[in-house]
Recover the amino acids of this structure.
């Protein structure tokens, strides 16, 4: 069975690497991790992932929600937002993009896994 | 004619008396005497209406008889007998106070009756005039003002007793000195003398002047003859010292307030409740505040106050005023104006309506002052606070991120080791870092950025540990009874580490062999501020002989140290049907750091 390919968008590289490790331990394939929204757009086009794990606070001009908005304009791809803060304003903005989930950090890996699995179990 | 006239006839010649009696008997009761002595006795005992008097008596003659009788019968009508050849005597007697005289031998009843009647009336008239004069004289003398009649040369013809007292002058001197001498102590009329002016104007004139320590008011009214020629004047001098002093005091007081008003930093106003805020009065502070002079604003001469107010505030101010006027309450507002030079200023206004006794609005009064500097300072403080909040949030965010980075590094490091002990040690450290990191996350989200809600914090720690220890809900039941308790970072961080240790121990040791378990956590805060947290499980408790206070377990040692030293609280336990931990501490000693 083909592994689900994940793109991680996270500006803290260590956290990104750790998340990559966790995802891989859970049986997913992480195609890359990037620190900015701009890079996320490029890598999505280039690597064609199945899911994007998107942090909201990113380096660069765009935040995760802006980047996700641009991405879904050219590719219908499931997006899981991860953020340290459950601010209402961010949540409301993110919900307009109809994401798979809006998770708070530290991310509970099992929860993350069940969200990803649910996308592809249908 | 009324019959009850009491008449005394004093008549030496008895024949005359008989004649008189015959003539008067119809109309009166009559008493006869022949001597002055008898007459006086009768007069003293009885009040007669008429006395017929013969001047020539055995014990008195001529005008002396009349004088003596009048002495005792001042109010009685006295008619003197006189012979034909004594007409002069009769006239003399009238001059001296008799009402009439009768020529003896020519008397008849009708004539007598007429004379008596006429004499009585004349006497009554005289008495009325005399009584009236007496009353007026009493009034005249009772007045505290000096009232006098002066002639055209300025001499006092008549004066009341207050005149003598007011000018400390004797009866002897008062008629020999001019009024200007008496009143002003001058040898000629004072400048602006009301008497001099009255002579020209022929009407009431007055003046007020100061006489050493007294304030006097002189009023002069002309006395004219039938042809309108001035014959003299009524001259009234009133001592108005007390009212003048009150007036001066009032004026001084007014001057003080006025000076204060004019030196106020802001603008005091009185205006109409109209759509221009038409000013009736504005204080000098107007110029500093608006750049316009008071006279420019009064009656909207150059500009209306409404036009100075920035347009976006005009309707709001109008609405606020009308609302408060309905309630008759004070208006307080902050808004912006544009000064004459075009400068925009922040002003603060406080005002109220002025109402009459029936509650009808007369006008508005209040005070407006420049608060631009204060407002700018406030805005600056607000901006500074915003910057502080942003920086602080950034700091919490960075700290939390850094802890997560450390946590991630440890996790990756542990992944490379196959040693179970290292795995477990790293896991414990990661839990501790997560507990600390959670404090910063909570602080970032806290409204005042300084205190976190322990209830939410404990729930989150529990959730993280359950995931980490893979606690399955079918094996474990939880009961949380946590009240909302807010603590500072100083308490939250050590407490988080302690709870992390105690809850981890429950998950690791209390329920071996996958047995089912219960964990109850409760928290409350006493009125004293003491916070009590209790963790109770129904697990295996401690093995016999185990003393957690003396254990070499680093986790428990650290927990004791954190509670005792850092929280200044107490940590105790009880083993009964499981294990209970009791944490007690007080956060009040910790100052808010932000």
């Amino acid at each position: 069975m083909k592994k689900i390919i994940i793109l991680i968008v996270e500006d803290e590289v260590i956290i990104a690497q750790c998340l990559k490790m966790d995802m891989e331990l859970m049986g997913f394939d992480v195609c890359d991790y990037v620190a900015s929204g701009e890079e996320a757009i490029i890598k999505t086009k280039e690597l064609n992932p199945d899911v994007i794990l998107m942090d909201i606070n990113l380096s660069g001009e765009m935040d995760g929600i802006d980047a996700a908005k641009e991405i879904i304009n050219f590719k219908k791809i499931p997006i899981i937002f991860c953020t340290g803060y459950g601010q209402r304003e961010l949540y409301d903005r993110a919900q307009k993009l109809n994401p798979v989930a809006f998770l708070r950090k530290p991310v509970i890996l099992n929860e993350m896994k069940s969200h990803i699995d649910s996308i592809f179990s249908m | 004619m009324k019959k009850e006239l009491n008449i005394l006839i004093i008549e030496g010649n008895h024949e005359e008396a008989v004649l008189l009696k015959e003539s008067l008997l119809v109309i009166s009761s009559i008493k006869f005497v022949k001597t002055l002595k008898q007459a006086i006795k009768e007069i003293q005992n009885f009040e007669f209406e008429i006395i017929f008097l013969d001047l020539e008596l055995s014990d008195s003659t001529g005008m002396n008889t009349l004088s003596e009788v009048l002495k005792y019968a001042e109010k009685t009508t006295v008619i003197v007998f006189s012979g034909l050849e004594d007409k002069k005597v009769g006239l003399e007697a009238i001059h001296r106070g008799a009402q009439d005289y009768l020529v003896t031998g020519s008397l008849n009843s009708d004539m007598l009756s007429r004379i008596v009647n006429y004499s009585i009336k004349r006497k009554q008239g005289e008495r009325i005039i005399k009584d009236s004069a007496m009353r007026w004289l009493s009034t005249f003398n009772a007045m505290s003002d000096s009232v006098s009649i002066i002639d055209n040369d300025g001499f006092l013809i008549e004066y009341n007793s207050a005149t003598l007292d007011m000018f400390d002058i004797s009866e002897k001197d008062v008629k020999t000195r001019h009024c200007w001498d008496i009143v002003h102590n001058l040898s000629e009329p004072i400048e602006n003398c009301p008497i001099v002016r009255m002579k020209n104007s022929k009407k009431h004139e007055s003046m007020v002047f100061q006489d050493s320590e007294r304030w006097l008011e002189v009023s002069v009214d002309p006395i004219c003859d039938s042809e309108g020629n001035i014959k003299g004047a009524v001259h009234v001098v009133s001592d108005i010292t007390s009212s003048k002093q009150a007036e001066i005091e009032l004026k001084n007081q007014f001057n003080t307030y006025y000076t204060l008003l004019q030196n106020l930093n802001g603008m005091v106003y009185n205006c109409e409740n109209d759509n221009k805020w038409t000013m009736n009065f504005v204080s000098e502070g107007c110029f500093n505040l608006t750049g316009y002079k008071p006279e420019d604003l009064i009656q909207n001469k150059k500009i209306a106050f409404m036009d100075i107010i920035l347009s976006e505030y005009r309707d709001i101010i109008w609405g606020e005023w009308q609302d408060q006027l309905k309630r008759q309450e004070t208006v307080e507002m902050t808004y912006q104006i544009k000064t004459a030079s075009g400068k925009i200023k922040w002003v603060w206004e406080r005002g109220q309506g002025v109402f009459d006794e029936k509650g009808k609005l007369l006008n508005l009064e209040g005070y407006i002052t420049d608060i631009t500097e204060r407002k700018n300072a406030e805005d600056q403080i607000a901006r500074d606070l915003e910057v502080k909040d942003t920086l602080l949030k950034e700091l919490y965010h960075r700290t939390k991120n850094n802890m997560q980075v450390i946590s991630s590094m440890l996790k990756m490091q542990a992944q490379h080791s196959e040693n179970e002990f290292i795995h477990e040690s790293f896991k414990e450290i990661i839990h501790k870092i997560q507990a600390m990191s959670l404090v910063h996350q909570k602080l970032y989200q806290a409204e005042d950025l300084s205190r976190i809600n322990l209830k939410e914090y404990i729930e989150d720690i529990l959730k993280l540990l359950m995931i980490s220890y893979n606690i399955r809900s079918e094996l474990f039941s939880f009961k949380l009874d946590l009240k909302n308790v807010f603590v500072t970072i100083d308490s939250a961080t050590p407490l988080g580490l302690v709870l992390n240790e105690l809850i981890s121990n429950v998950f690791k040791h209390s329920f071996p062999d996958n047995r089912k378990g219960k964990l109850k956590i409760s928290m409350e805060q006493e009125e004293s501020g003491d916070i009590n947290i209790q963790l109770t499980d129904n697990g295996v408790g401690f093995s016999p002989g185990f003393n957690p206070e003396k254990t070499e377990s680093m986790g428990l040692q650290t927990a004791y140290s954190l509670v005792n030293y850092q929280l200044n609280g107490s940590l105790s336990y009880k083993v009964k049907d499981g294990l209970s931990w009791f944490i007690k501490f007080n956060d009040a000693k910790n100052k808010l750091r932000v």
